[in-house]
Design goal:
Blueprint lengths: L7 E5 L3 H13 L3 E5 L2 H10 L4 E5 L7 H10 L7 E6 L4 H10 L3 E4 L4 H25 L7
Parallel strand pairs: 1-2, 1-3, 3-4, 4-5
Helix pairs in contact: 2-3
Length: 144
């Protein structure tokens, strides 16, 4: 009997302390979690891996989280990757921008494990909703 590997999660945050704490939380929630500290390393990891989840800081140096979210959504391999934006900046237009870029959720920092767990459940529900919407807007027999 083989055991199923835990789902892969990627934490993208310039702040190493925050990223490492989130990795610990995700590990407690059953993920194989890894942290990257910046936009370029995140995009390199995403080119080579297909995580189930990306926790994505919105304010990164260089390329911001909204642009990374768009990068994820343009990549067909990452179609079903959950993206949850996070920031201590909770301006409505910022959160809306992440949603418009394709994020499945948003977390306000600092993040507690119970809030993270609920946000992941909400993100999964959002992905199911999006897939159902996509499926009902495509004629049978089309693949786009």
């Amino acid at each position: 009997m083989t055991s199923k590997a835990p789902p892969l999660a990627l934490v993208v945050d310039d702040n190493r302390l925050i990223a490492n704490n989130l990795v610990k939380m995700l590990t407690l929630l059953g993920y194989e979690a890894h942290a990257v500290h910046g936009a370029l390393p995140a995009m390199q990891v995403l080119e080579a891996n297909v995580p189930e989840l990306v926790l994505l800081d919105i304010h990164l140096q260089g390329v911001n989280g909204v642009d990374i979210c768009k990068f994820i959504r343009r990549n067909k391999r990452l179609t079903f990757t959950l993206v949850v934006g996070m920031s201590s900046d909770t301006q409505p237009e910022l959160i809306s921008g992440m949603r418009q870029a394709g994020a499945n959720g948003f977390l306000a920092k600092p993040i507690q494990v119970e809030v993270l767990e609920q946000a992941l459940a909400d993100a999964r529900a959002d992905m199911v909703r999006r897939v159902n919407e996509w499926a009902t807007t495509r004629p049978l027999g089309t693949q786009q």
